[in-house]
Amino acid sequence: MTGTATTSKAAAASPPVAADLAHLPVPTNYVDRTMARMKLLPPITVSNFASNVNWGNTFFLVAPPALAIWGFCTIPLLRQTAIFSVLYYFFTGLGITAGYHRLWSHRSYNASKFVEVLLALAGAGSVQGSIKWWCRGHRAHHRYTDTKLDPYSANEGFFSSHIGWIIFKPRGQIGASDVSDLTRNWIVKYQHKYYGPIALFMAFVVPTLITGLGWGDYLGGFLFAGCARLVFVHHSTFAVNSFAHMFGEHTYDNKHSPRDNFLTSLVTFGEGYHNFHHQFPMDFRNAIRWYQYDPTKWLISAFSTLGLASHLKRFPDNEIQKGKYTMQLEKLQTDNGNIKWPKRDLPVVSWENFQPDAKERSLIAIHGFIHDCSSFIEDHPGGAHLIKKAIGTDATAAFFGGVYDHSNAAHNILGMMRVGILDGGMEVESLKFKKRRDSVAYQSDSEASTCSDDDSLVSESDIQAIVEDIQATVREYENKHPIHQPSAYVPIPYVLPLPASERIAIIKAKPELLPSVASRVSSPVPTRPASPVL
Asked: Signal peptide location in the record (predicted)?
């Protein structure tokens, strides 16, 4: 019994072996570790539905639209009330975008106390929580975008990211975020402490009093400037969390879901350029082009001009362009995979073999490439006779402006007709190389190195003339190299049969020789491959 008990205790105290833990996922980052330690609420079901609804938030999401609909059906909407409702929509909406969002959440500029009080009151009129509460959630949203710690993650679906996160209690805690800077601001502290009365006063009492005292429309002010306006402010702000994370362009980055959405910008005073904002959150702008709609940016700039705001933060334009350039490159690479380009593994064909084959296959040499134009003869915009006339010839000069200076599209079409590379480049160069090959004896490098100066097959003046001829030929070829399409690189397989001492002397005496020319003079003689036949 004692031995059994001891064994049982030892087994209980021993740590689990690796095989026992193999089925468990290993947390790899902060989000995974936090979620592993977090105690989550059970899923929402029919039986626990009522207990999981945040009824206070739900009331302010349901009552205003219901009252607004009743108002539209029962009383007339006065023109003055309609105009004031739109203006008050801008006032309270900008309290969120210029105040809650860009000033307090991201500290993208500094504002005077007058502006801070004004924006704190306007933001409260949008009934979206206190500054401290709103910023705490928004900073968590940026820090944990698209994760389980994101309070309104787009990965949870459209409804959840739009209003579901407000209606239902979260299954777990949202990610941690630092709001210590806000606790030191007396305006933020006061608004947070008395948020309820301030929000009701700014959202409903102020518009009712202004319309009532102004033109006697108390009820219209409450229903339209109060309730209907609040519905638009709510859902325009919520659209940034839903629409701007699911629809639009990844202009600067596609690692996360935020997108640039112009339509969302129209109803959120410029907040719809959300891909830019998530990449450069501390920039006081959301739209950086003069023609882009961003009233919040304009308001902040106006505050700065009036001396009511300062230290407007901008990300360096160079870094912004890097992000945009990266996404453009990625798109080009994606498009490149769907484009057919000219073949690269082409045979090298001599001029002697090219000419007889050209008459059978309608081959034309242009810029060192051999093209099969048989399928294009009748479709040539300049007429079939020009193609037929060029068959079996080098039409480089004609193609590059001699007859017509062809467009980039023509170059691309021509490139798809390539079937070979002309040995030595263009016809003239090929003939020059052939003439040089016939005039200069061909011998191995080992034999050349054993020859004495007197045994050299050419005189010093001949050497100088040949070297200058090679240099001029290469420069002429490179000067004629067009920028429209790449040319094939075909090395010249001919080396001057000179003793080693003379080859070195030529290079030392002519330091201005191109590296390629110097290598042809000093390199060993290669074995000439036979030219393939097309």
From this structure: none
